[in-house]
Specification:
It is a single chain. By secondary structure, this protein is mainly alpha-helical. It has 27 helices and 4 strands. The strands form 2 sheets. Strands 1-2 form a two-stranded antiparallel sheet. Strands 3-4 form a two-stranded antiparallel ribbon. α16 packs across α18 and α19 (437-451) runs parallel beside α22 (538-552). The radius of gyration is 25 Å and the shape is globular. The termini are far apart. 52% of the residues are buried.
Length: 661
């Protein structure tokens, strides 16, 4: 069934009251089940699982993946199967929509853990208590929800802004429940089968799982003399280097540096293949270009000149050069310059995002006669925002001060800037599905850093609040869009979003400690374990770099690093201008090139292979309706979601096992 919508002429000429009456009479589904006990529980559980996979991915790539369509497909498949088995009635379309809204909110809760909060701990060396994390994230997220309520009626009801990502979710839901059910079942099978196969492979290459199976369960050590479990090596070239050590084979070097020190390894990582498939060939190629420029050319050159060298600790111990050490000593600076400059140029090159945002919020509003509001019983009452925003603003400033030692004055004066940037972010999401939280948070970070350069928390935490509040407000509006298209009650989705916030915090925070802050033999946790070869934490490294530039200034850097930063910033501006002039046809992304600098090259190569695979098969199977098109093009997202979730869930389980056994 085609989704009903107003024409451009109706949008521009009708009053909001007329639009609301049309929607109420033609789209609204009345009391169709939406936020039910089962949709709430399903969203809560799916949100917890999917936020875990999102945390795994952001730890490896610095990218926050959307989980809403994955939740839609899984919810559809679960209740369709239960319905056929006579165990439960099928989900309604609005129950599924509410479930994806809850899961989506849970997925967004990992962004601060993988970026700003991790950066704070790396910079200060202080471990944030888990309950501080949960309270701070919860307050910021609820504040984002409260800020979104006044914007909803203007952005969605009155201006009918597109919210492309939300609209795509609405179209998928409509096709599942009013079209052929076979399409949804096929996508669900693709996701599940891919996840299972990927999980089996990941289990075979995982030391924890193999130790559990071979030694703890099958007790093979009793009769095979095993001291350690056997498992395949995920790093494929390790077999060559092992043979090379025995047979004195050739070891490749670049300008005298062993390529293993540069991180140039060959690793079969299916989760990164899935991430590459989702990001597309243009972005993945840009990431790959950044890795090649840095690790093949610049890093070996700087090692040869001595600007990158092994560090000697006060104890006299020598810290050998590794990929992480190379990034921290030198490469980080030009990578951060590329990402920040590219993001800011891309943002300010779209003035309509700023002008439309303020027109939408502060422009002349069409009056709605008192007592004639058809939607008063299904919308979120605005008084909740008017009362809640001041209360939660004070709460936000309070926890920011007491938990992170941000001065009271900075805690409060950052709030007006944060709210303005949130409006801009929400409007950008409405027009393009792009949430420029990275660029906007850097505006807060530099602004607060100009006031207080001594305390890193003074710029990191207010900037983190910008990202959290803006992303929650924008994601809620985007999630409400499909509900509006399908005739749901926005009040139910707002409540569901809050349920998702709780689910994400409960799942992601304990998992963060297990994955990134495991205790040592004495039970002590250290921020030094956050960034590892397995988890590069690129987003946190970027936030850390900006904080250190603010605190120390560029004069503390080697001359070569300063020159590289200037060249990178100018190149980023040129790339973004070229993208604007060519209307998006220019094949490179400055932000993605910078990301390739801080990611492990092995991961960037796998991303590029994944993107190349789906790009090539998409070109080969262009014709809609063919089996190849159905599998590679229509099935791209569920396949990639299966690759990511299968590898991530088993990888998370492996990390937990290594802590417990």
């Amino acid at each position: 069934m085609a989704i009903q919508s107003l024409s451009e002429a109706q949008i521009s000429t009708w009053t909001r009251q007329q639009k609301d009456e049309w929607w109420f009479n033609n789209v609204f589904r009345g009391d169709m089940a939406q936020l039910t006990v089962r949709s709430g529980i399903t969203g809560f559980l799916l949100g917890g699982v999917l936020s875990a996979t999102a945390l795994y991915v952001i730890g490896k790539t610095g990218i926050t993946i959307g989980v809403n369509l994955t939740a839609v497909i899984l919810s559809f498949a679960i209740f369709r199967a239960m319905n056929k088995a006579g165990m439960a009635s099928d989900f309604t379309i609005l129950e599924n929509n509410c479930t994806q809204s809850i899961a989506s909110a849970a997925g967004y809760m990992v962004s601060a853990l993988g970026s700003s909060l991790a950066a704070y701990m790396i910079v200060t060396g202080k471990i944030i208590p888990w309950w501080h994390m949960m309270i701070w994230m919860g307050v910021c997220s609820i504040l984002g929800v409260l800020v979104a309520f006044p914007m909803k009626r203007r952005f969605i009801n009155e201006d009918q802004l597109p919210f492309p990502e939300g609209r795509a979710c609405g179209v998928v839901l409509d096709s599942l429940y009013t079209g052929s059910a076979e399409t949804g079942v096929f996508k669900a099978k693709l996701l599940v089968y891919t996840a299972v196969l990927t999980g089996i492979y990941q289990m075979v290459v995982s030391d924890g799982w193999m130790r559990l199976f071979q030694i703890k369960i099958f007790m093979m050590d009793k009769w095979a003399g095993l001291k350690e479990a056997w498992n395949l090596n995920e790093t494929l070239d390790a077999y060559y280097y092992e043979a090379a050590g025995r047979l004195s084979l050739w070891i490749p070097h670049i300008l005298g540096t062993d390529i293993r020190q540069l991180g140039l390894r060959l690793t079969l990582d299916f989760s990164m293949i899935g991430v590459g498939g989702l990001m597309g060939i243009r972005v993945a190629s840009s990431v790959m270009l950044g890795a090649v420029i840095n690790f093949v050319f610049l890093a070996p050159w700087m090692i040869q000149t001595g600007d990158i060298a092994p560090r000697i600790l006060p104890s006299g111990a020598v810290v050998a050069l590794t990929r992480a050490e190379i990034v921290n000593q030198w490469s980080l600076w030009w990578g951060v310059a590329m990402m920040v400059a590219g993001a800011l140029v891309g943002l300010f090159a779209k003035p309509e995002i700023f002008t439309n945002a303020f027109k939408s919020v502060f422009g002349k509003k069409q009056a709605v006669p008192v007592g004639n509001d058809l939607l008063k019983d299904i919308e979120v009452p605005l008084w909740i925002s008017y009362v809640g925003i001041p209360i939660f603003s004070v709460l936000g400033a309070t926890v920011t001060h007491y938990f992170f030692d941000v001065p009271w004055l900075l805690s409060f004066i950052s709030l007006p800037l944060i709210f303005i940037l949130t409006i801009i972010c929400a409007n950008s999401m409405a027009l393009t599905s792009w949430m420029p939280t990275g660029a906007l948070s850097k505006i807060t970070q530099f602004t607060m850093g100009a006031v207080d350069r001594v305390n890193p928390a003074s710029n990191l935490i207010p900037a983190a609040m910008t990202a959290e509040i803006a992303s929650n407000a924008s994601s809620l509006l985007s999630d409400i869009k499909p509900g509006y298209m399908l005739g749901g009650k926005p009040r139910h989705q707002a409540i569901g979003h809050c349920i998702g916030i709780v689910a994400g915090a409960l799942a992601a925070v304990p998992l963060f400690f297990l994955l990134f802050l495991p205790p040592d033999a004495n039970g002590v946790r250290s921020a030094s374990t956050i960034v590892t070869e397995q988890f590069a934490m690129p987003a946190a490294v970027q936030w850390k770099g900006v904080a250190e530039i603010i605190a120390k200034g560029v004069s503390s850097l080697p001359t070569s690093a300063i020159i590289a930063m200037i060249v990178a910033a100018l190149s980023a501006a040129a790339i973004e201008i070229a993208r604007i002039v060519t209307k998006g046809r220019f094949p490179l992304s400055a932000v993605s090139i910078g990301l390739g600098v801080v990611l492990p090259p092995a991961a960037t190569f796998m991303m590029w292979l994944g993107a190349l695979l789906f790009w090539w098969m998409g070109r080969k199977h262009k014709a809609a309706g063919t089996k190849g098109h159905q599998f590679w093009v229509e099935g791209c997202e569920p396949i990639c979601a299966g690759l990511i979730s299968g590898a991530a869930l088993i990888g998370i389980g492996n990390a937990i096992l290594n802590v417990l056994i």
